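RESIDUES AND SHAPES:
===
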Amino acid sequence: MSDEQIEYNAVGKPKIRAKARVVPITPAEDDSLYEVRQKVYPRAVSGVFANWRWAMVWLTQIVFYGFCWLPWNGRQGVLFHLAERKFYIFGFVFWPQDVFYLAVLLIISAYSLFLFTTVAGRLWCGFTCPQTVYTEMFLWIEKIVEGDRAKRMKLDQSGGARKFGLKSLKYFLWFVLSAWTGITFVGYFTPVQGLMHDIANWQLSGWEIFWVLFYGGFTYLMAGVMREQVCKYMCPYARFQSVMFDQDTLIITYDQERGDPRGSRRKGEDYKAAGKGDCVDCGICVQVCPTGIDIRNGLQYECIGCAACIDACDQVMEKMDYPKGLIRYSTENAVRKHWVRADILRHVMRPRVLIYSAILWAIIGAFIWGLATRSPVRVDVIKDRTTLAREVEGGFIENIYVLQLMNTSEIAREFRISVSGLSDIRLDGNASQLVQAASNRTLTVHVRAPVEAAERGSHPIYFDVNLDDPEIRPLREKSVFIMP
C-alpha cells in the first residue's frame, strides 16, 4: 500500500492525505520532559568576588546563629514568642495587633529586591540567598573531607572502605550543621536557653521536634544533596527575573567580540595572527560555576550572579598577560557599544530605577515614622454583649465593658482610666491599674450614668487613658452606652 490514500471531498473531487507514520523513540532520545542530572563539582576559586561572598557568609551566619543568644533587659534580644504571641526585637515589643508593621517590612523587602535586581542583577542570589550561603558552607565541608574537585570526582568513581569512610564523615558533619541550623531556627520562636535545656533532658514538645527536623532536614536536602537543582528548577525568582532586567542591568557578561574565536595557545604566542580571540578555551569558568553553566553562551536563567567565573577568568588572563575583564560585570548596552565605567554609571539612574527608589524610600520613611511615633501603650474596648444594660440602685443605668490594657514598653506603667460623653457618667470601681513591662491585662469595668442623662437608645462615650509618663500622649477609645 502506498504512503498516500485517495479520498473524495463533499463535491466529489479527490483529496490527498498523507498516511501517518509512527516513529519509535528510544529512551535515550526521549529527553523532552526531564534532563538526566549530571552532578556538578564546583572548583574552588579565589579572588575579589569570592572574598565578598565569604564575607557575606560570615555576616549572615553570625546574625542567624548569634542573635538568638543576645540578652536584652533580662530576656532574649530577638524572639518571636509563639506561646506568648509577642515578638521581641531588642527594644521593640510587637503584638498580634502590630501585624501591619510586618506587612510593611515585607513590602520593603520586595521593593528592595526589585530595585537591586534592576540595577545589578541577581546580587541577592549570588551573595546572600540562604541557598547560596549554605551551599558554600556544605561545599567547604566537602572540600575539607574529600579534597579538591579532581579528588572528589575520582572518589565518586571509586569504591571501597576509604570512600565509605570519607562519605560517612562528610554526611555526619552535614548532619551536625543541619541539626544545629534547625535548633537555631526554633530558638527564635521559643526561648533558646529553655530549648537547649529541653534538648539535654529529652523534653522537647511535638512542634519543636517537628520544626527542628523539618528545617534541619530541608537544609541538608537543599544545600547538601540538591544544590544547583534548587536554583535551576525550584526557585521562582529565576523565572521572573527577566521582567526586572533591561539592557542597562549589570549582569555577568562574556565579551564575545574580544574572546572569540576561542582556542588554546601557548603563553606569548601571536594568537591574533592565527585569528583567535582572548579566550583560551580552558573551561575553568564552567568548572567553578555552582550551577554548571557556560557563561560564554550568554545570559541564562541558571546564572545566580555569584561572579565565580569572573574571578577564575581574571586569574587566567593574568597568567597569560592579557587584560582582565573578558568575563565581567557589565550591561548588554555597555558590551555592545563599548562603554566605559562612567557611561555605565550614567545609565544607572533611568526611569524605572527612579520609580523603584522613590517608592522604596517613601515606604521606608513611613515605616520609620510609624515606629518612631508608635505609642508604647494600647487600649482596646469591647462592649459586654451578655448584659447590654441594666438598672441599678440609685437611679443609674449600668453598662459593662472589657478593657484590654497593653504595655509594650520595658517598664511597668500605671493606667488611669476615666470615661466621658454623657452627663454625670462615671466608673464604678478602681480607675487605676498597674500593667507590668511587656505584658497585658484584661479589666472588666462597670460604667454608670443617671437615667435622665440621655434618651433611650445608644449613645457614644469615650474612655480616656492617662499614664504616669507625661511624654506619652493620652489615649481615647470610643464605645457606645445603651440606655434601655
